[in-house]
Amino acid sequence: MAGERIGVYPGTFDPITSGHAEIVRRSMRLVDRLVLAPAMNIGKGPLFSLEERVEMLREIIAEQEPDVAGRIGIVPFTGLLVHFAKAQSATCIIRGLRAVSDFEYEIQMANMNARMEPAIETIFLMASDRHQFIASSLVKDIARLGGDTSKFVSAKVYERLKSKFAGLNGVN
């Protein structure tokens, strides 16, 4: 559709957290369509496979109102984000920020992307105070050590984490 505002929300989503879900919900007020873009080639070796991460994203979409869910898609990507966004006809890239340290890195990326594709804007959404501290890496560390991650992820993701780490440190 001409003039359609398409946003791309990229990430590792390993796993998707309550903070990611909040950014998805808030993004839908800004764009007509949102493409959730899990990174395919991750140098840091994800806990969850691409297929599992896509399934977790599908679960987040299913939690949305039907009119909102119908405007969200999932397209895994590899390579430069800005090239992917252009291929999706995106008008913007959505990035969630938790802290000043996130901003320092993200502003560099946004400026580089703007140089390569000036027509694609980067929109930064600050995490709410109840989600600012949630990071996928911390969630995985807590789960790995037998801690309760249920306050940081959906019930289904919580069960997936428990399954991944079942039997470690004597915790089931």
Note the main attributes of this structure:
Rossmann fold; globular; 7 helices; 41% helix
Structure description:
The chain is an alpha/beta fold. It has one domain (6-130): HUPs (Rossmann fold, 3-Layer(aba) Sandwich). It has 7 helices and 5 strands. The protein has helices at residues 18-27, 50-62, 66-69, 81-87, 100-116, 136-144, 155-164, and strands spanning 6-11, 33-38, 72-74, 92-97, 121-126. A 5-stranded parallel β-sheet has the order 3-2-1-4-5, with helices on both faces. The longest helix has 17 residues, at 100-116. The chain is globular, with a radius of gyration of 16 Å. The model has no long low-confidence stretch (mean pLDDT 90).
